[in-house]
Amino acid sequence: MSYLIGCAETCSAVLVDPELSQIDRYLALAARAGLRLHYLIDTHTHADHFSAARELSERLGVPTVMHRASSAPYVGVRVDDGETLIAGKLRLRVLHTPGHTDDSICLALPDRVLTGDTLLRLATGRTDLPGGDPEALHDSLFEKLLRLDGRCRSFRATTTRARRSPRSPRSGRRTRASSGGSGRPSWSRCGRSAWRCPST
Questions:
Q1: CATH superfamily, with its number, for domain 3-189
Q2: Which of 101, 102, 110, 197 shows the shortest CA–CA distance to 158?
Q3: Which residues are within 8 A (CB) of 16 and not within 5 positions of it... i.e. 6 or more apart?
Q4: Which helix (H) or strand (E) holds 33?
Q5: Radius of gyration of the chain from Cα atoms?
Q6: pLDDT tens, per residue, the chain with 200 residues
Q7: Residue 111 and residue 91: Cα distance in Å, rounded?
């Protein structure tokens, strides 16, 4: 699952976990919402699809972001735990959450967190692939994600079943997805269905 997150006030945006087969869709969504991409973020090295970050970076001149443990040669910005990515008024705090892969990160905003493949719906990321570590994943879940505010909504990169509304990573309760509002980010989920970015 990919996410286009935009600041309606500044028209700045980031694209998280873009898939190679969906490039035209991402560009159309950003254009329709009047958003300009500032970062292309991969939450981890993907084994289940080809990332579009490299191609989009070359095409648009936008830096690709990954954790500093990533071995990907095309990464323009390498981040570590606690650092913040800024795009317009958006502030995305990086949480290094190894376990699924050693370069896994989650991105925390004030009221939501993008968990990549660290936390899935009804599951966690696999640890039996290269770079996987079950003990590190346990620590990432219990020392990082479960310490976030219980009202924080989680958005995952992969779904294991038909998706309903997102759940809080701490309480497990369902929450309503919202799109935008004054000073809040606009969202577009670029997977099977989409939340439309509100007009500015």
A1: Ribonuclease Z/Hydroxyacylglutathione hydrolase-like (3.60.15.10)
A2: 101
A3: 2, 3, 4, 5, 41, 42, 43, 107, 114, 157
A4: helix 23-33
A5: 15
A6: 899 999 999 999 999 999 999 999 999 999 999 999 999 999 998 666 689 999 999 999 999 999 999 999 999 999 999 999 999 999 999 999 999 999 999 999 999 999 988 888 888 888 888 888 999 999 999 999 999 998 999 998 765 443 444 455 555 544 333 333 334 455 555 443 333 333 33
A7: 11
Q: Which helix (H) or strand (E) holds 151?
A: none
Residue 135 CB partners (closer than 8 Å, separation 6+): 99
**How much is the pTM?**
0.79
What's phi and psi for 144, nearest 5 deg?
A: -120, -65
H or E element at residue 105: strand 105-108
What are the residue ranges spanned by the domains of the chain?
Answer: 3-189
CA 17 to centroid of chain Cα atoms = 6
